[in-house]
Write a structure and sequence with these properties.
There is one protein chain. The protein has 302 residues and is of the alpha/beta class. The chain has one domain: Rossmann fold (3-Layer(aba) Sandwich), CATH 3.40.50.150. The chain is 25% helix and 24% strand. It has a nine-stranded mixed beta sheet, sandwiched between helices. Helix 4 links the parallel strand 6 and strand 7. The protein is globular and about 50 Å long. The mean pLDDT is 95.
């Protein structure tokens, strides 16, 4: 095992403690999520995912402002964030979407999970199938106070701006978008590049939406949100599990001076909150799109 990360390039030194809620410690809430099972399947199928990313779900909930009554959660399966909303923000009515290849179809899945109090929570979660980059969402204009767009952006195959335009449409004026996505500039990827390893996600047996097709930096994420009619008021990167960069490239300490100025941008995930403000630019930004007609492209500063 490599030595711990040098403090100067440790992404955890730039974020606060993992949030706790409702009198339950963060680790207790994460352990409860590890018990979650879908449609009668064994809970062990999702335990590793919940264990690795439990902190991400808690940080996501922590970004939702007070006063939200109606929320849209895009790509809700397997319902870790949905479950935390049910427990920690029960005043919020949540509409869920997924995409399993049947656009426009409605469905429901059964969820069974151990509540941190010790009881068993069982519920049916309804959803509508929506391919978010392929057409109009089946929701009215300004229908929601908040949209959660978490770990979906990186799966878009051809037009992420279209999805963000639709999110803008269904948000009320002043409503908020909560976005999380893997950080392509994370410290582990810096280490992979130095070690001569590939950064791209493998092909998936679930098809093109089963892989990460394009990851983002924090800088890009902010520009993308602004282009699409949002005003970010909070954005940061954070590790949510032990950082393995020093295992990938054991001589990482040699880079402490070079990477110290990038410390806030090296975490595993990007977290952003943005208010619906202004109107989207209808063109596609030049830093994200190519091989489109010139009249469809907006020249961008990045």
């Amino acid at each position: 095992m490599a030595d711990e990360l040098p403090q100067a390039i440790d992404p955890r030194s730039y974020v606060g403690e993992t949030p706790s809620f409702g009198g339950f410690a963060a680790d207790r809430l994460c352990r409860s999520l590890e018990s979650l099972a879908l449609d009668g399947h064994p809970s062990g199928e999702l335990r590793a995912y919940a264990h690795e990313d439990g902190e991400r779900f808690l940080r996501t909930i922590d970004m939702i402002p007070p006063g939200v009554a109606k929320a849209l959660e895009i790509g809700a399966n397997p319902y870790f964030t949905t479950t935390l909303l049910r427990w920690l923000r029960p005043e919020i009515a949540v509409t869920a979407t997924n995409y399993f290849g049947n656009d426009g179809m409605a469905g429901a899945q059964s969820v069974r999970v151990a509540h941190p109090s010790g009881s068993i929570d069982e519920f049916r979660q309804a959803y509508v199938e929506v391919n978010v980059e392929a057409g109009r969402f089946p929701f009215d204009d300004e229908a929601f106070d908040c949209v959660l767009f978490c770990e979906v952006l990186e799966h878009m195959t051809n037009d992420p701006v279209a999805a963000l335009f639709e999110i803008w449409r269904v948000l009320r004026p002043g409503g908020c978008l909560i976005l999380t996505t893997p950080n392509v500039a994370r410290l582990e990827n810096v280490a992979r590049a130095l070690a001569g390893s590939n950064l791209y996600d493998p092909y998936s047996g679930y098809g093109p939406y089963g892989r990460h097709n394009r990851e983002y930096t924090r800088h890009e994420t902010v520009h993308l949100l602004q282009h699409c009619g949002f005003a970010p008021d909070l954005h940061f990167t954070a590790d949510v599990r032990p950082n393995r960069a020093a295992d990938i490239f054991p001589k990482l300490e040699r880079l402490s001076d070079l990477l110290a100025h990038r410390g806030p941008d090296l975490g595993h995930y990007i977290f952003a909150r943005a208010e619906k403000a202004g109107r989207p630019n209808p063109l596609r930004p030049s830093w994200l799109y190519r091989s489109l007609p010139e009249e469809m492209i907006a020249q961008s500063p990045i």
